Every structure is written in C-alpha cells, then in structure tokens.
Amino acid sequence: DALVVLDVTHSNLEQRHAELRFAKHDSLETLRTRIHQKTGTSAQFQHLLVYDNHDDNSLLHEIPPETSDDIKLGYFGILHHGMRVHCVDLNPHSGSAGGAYEDVSLVEKYRMTEDEYDARKGTLRDWGRQQRELVVDEPDVVAPIKMSEMVGSDEYGLDSVAHCQVGQRCQVEPGQRRGEIAFIGKLSQEKPGHWVGVRFDEPVGQNNGVDNGVVFFEAMDRYGAFVRGKKVVTGDFPERDIFDSDD
C-alpha cells in the first residue's frame, strides 16, 4: 500500500486530527505543511515526535525543526496505518497557547441590548409584531354581533366548527399562524355562536385562553386566541423552525 494514514496531535491543542493520509514517498515538508494547516504552527517551530501507535507512547523518532525538508517519511519509520505524529510547538508566542484556538470563553462576544434588538427588522420579535397587527378576528377586537343577526344563521353555528377537534394541529388566518386546537364551544352571551380556541406556537394571539375571567384553556400570555371556525384550517401543520429558509 503506497498510502499511510496518520493521527496528528499537538502540544497546545486538545483536538486530535485523525486519519490524515500521506504517501510513503512524501517528504517531511509535506507533513510539516499539513501540520501547519491543521494547527497553525509553522514549520520552523515544529518539533515532531513519531509514535508507533496512536494509543500508546512508543516513541520511534524525534524530528527537530532543523531536519531537512527533503527527507522522505519512510526514513522516520512512518510506514503503516495508525501511527501518530505529535507536534511540540516551540514558538513562545504561539497563537494556540493557553487555549486561544479552542477555548470559546476567551472570545469577546457581541451582546445586543434590548432596545437594539427591538429596533431590528427581520427578527422573531419583529415577525411576532407583524403577525399581531394582522389579527382582526379575535373577540377582543371584532365588532359586536347582535343576537338578532345570529337567529336562523348557521355561519357561527355548530356546523361552522364541525371540521375541528381538540388536539388537532391547525393554521389560522390571517397570517398563517400555526398552533393546536385547545377548545371548541361557546363563550359569553356578548360573543354569540361557536368559537375555536387555539394555542399558538408563537406569541401571535390576543390572550391566554381566558375570556371574561373564565378559563377555557391554558396558554401563555399572547399565545391564545378565540377565532371563528371559518378562519381555521386543520391538517399537518408542524411547528415552524425559525432557522429554516426557503432559499
């Protein structure tokens, strides 16, 4: 086999670079270049230790930085799979020292204030605001319906919610708001007819499942709403992943 598969470790890094492939006739320069690419340690600061197996410490060769780049890997006994080359970084100012390449706690993080986030467009909060502006059919905002208008009308009767069942996933217009049906029935006399109580996936509702002090279902604030059956489409409407994109 003309190829050899090596593991590379580093004195300043916890990460092991596994199964790097080399040709047996590759030069030491090729190995040093790959180590530089993987670890950031340049060739003049690489003191290499060649071990027979990646799981033990059977040292075969030491390759100091001054060793000629032209020597083939086979000269150092790098002849079979599973061997390990450990790089000791001799640079006193190495960028990898002290965990600088791996410890994310050392990275200065950008923190946005509440006001900055609130002013941004295209965020989840901005989307929620837009959806709430579309809400026009909840009991708190619709115009009152006279009882006389309900007499003899099936628009808001039992048939208007016959396609709905508690526990079904649904999508509510306007705004294609998704959630789960949590209640079907009548509310107060001021809001006649049959209603569908929906527990939304996002804060795009008008209440928390309470109407006139009566708890019809449980939901977090602004995650609940009472809507007419004609606004509800039931079916396979899974919760949206906010990180999904159609692009």
Automatic annotation (TrEMBL):
- SMART domains attached here? CAP_GLY
Keywords of this entry: Chaperone, Cytoplasm
Q: What is this protein called?
A: CAP-Gly domain-containing protein
Question: What family does this chain come from, according to its entry?
Answer: Belongs to the TBCB family.
Q: Where is the CAP-Gly domain?
A: 186-228
As one GO molecular function, the record gives: alpha-tubulin binding
Tell me if Magnesium is a UniProt keyword of this record.
Answer: no
Under CDD domains, the record lists: Ubl_TBCB
One Gene Ontology CC term in the entry: nucleus
Which source organism? Phaeodactylum tricornutum (strain CCAP 1055/1)
Compartments annotated for it: namely: Cytoplasm
Q: What is its main location?
A: cytoplasm
Looking at the Swiss-Prot or TrEMBL record, what is one Pfam family this protein matches? Answer: CAP_GLY
User: Does GTP-binding count among this protein's keywords?
Assistant: no
Q: From the UniProt record, give one GO term of the biological process aspect.
A: cytoplasmic microtubule organization
Which InterPro entries does the record associate with it? CAP-Gly_dom_sf, CAP-Gly_domain, TBCB_Ubl, Ubiquitin-like_dom, Ubiquitin-like_domsf
